[in-house]
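Box 3.1 — From sequence to structure: Flagellum-specific ATP synthase
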Amino acid sequence: MTGEIVGAGDSGLQLLPFGTWDGIAVGDRVELIQSDDVIRPDESWIGTVIDALGRPLSPAPQFRHGNRRARGRNSPPPAYDRRRVGAKLETRVKCIDLFTPICRGQRMGVFAGSGVGKSTLMAMLARNTDAEIIVIGLVGERGREVQDFIEEDLGPEGMARSIVVVATGDEAPLLRRQAAWTATAVAEHFRTEGKQVLLMMDSVTRFAMAQREIGLSSGEPPTTRGYPPTVFSELPHLLERAGPGREGEGDITGIYTVLVDGDDMNEPIADAVRGILDGHIVLDRRIAEQNRYPAINVQKSISRMLPGCHSSEEFTIMQAARRALARYADMEELIRVGAYKPGSDPETDAAIRLFRSLDDFLAQKRDDTLRAEQSFAEVYRMLLEAGIEVALPSSGGK
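Predicted structure (token representation):
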């Protein structure tokens, strides 16, 4: 049985096992083994499922270890040594490409409660995003959901360019935490080789919960809603490792899911992660209940790469659509109860017309794709049909 030293005090060292406590008894011999937290990723890993320690979980005859070492618990590149974020990364998810665009090297959070289509959105991104290699970290997931995600959501098409790192919820907290580190280390390896990597982690909340178990076991005091201080120091250490590489390297575009307890977007982990990342996408239960997927709440979602991530024409179209959606949201209650009289306000009338067509347009099945330029052209047409004037920059138009 292997373990890790997680604390030290007057009474001695504190250890946690990488497995269960079964068979461990007082008086057992403990031996210090000098070992590095190291894996050796290789291109042969693409298309395989590995555990938190980098061992294949699925039959993989071609699986071999590479020549270069990658540390699981690595340090982020120095800020002054990194390139800036790159060009737009097309996801072919209409709502994201239009309203919350993602640039190469950006880090985005997907904030969602349970059962609002988080896994389906992750699968859509894995299948359709313009990335060379996809690394998926499934941290603390139920065993049944892991198989469902790999076989049904991701499918052979998505798996063909993916490496999946898995630590299920029944595994030791050390392994759940390690899975997040290993997934990030694999992504860092391919970034160093000049690849464009999409790193998706589901979920960073369960990484935080694993660290909470470790921290409390080592005697740390619970502070913010039961989370010890190390949770909030480990989060930026993990999330800052994604992003652009140095000159001559590739980028890691990070997408991290955050489970919000009771749809509370201000609970401690959600609040901390939102402050670290470069934007967030909010999945809304009310929209999911209306059977519109992906259930992205446009008004509550934001990309901090705007306006630079869009062209001037795209940004103008997006702004016009956002303003109309905000107008509709302000009047929605009155509209639903019949208190608003059509014709009393031209701006509201136009917002209602746009909302009906745009809401249908943003609904997207898992296998549906649309290029970003086609999405903008369609929304521009909807704006004009709704009677909303859009003054495109003189340099060009849609």
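Summary of the box: The chain has a mean pLDDT of 91.
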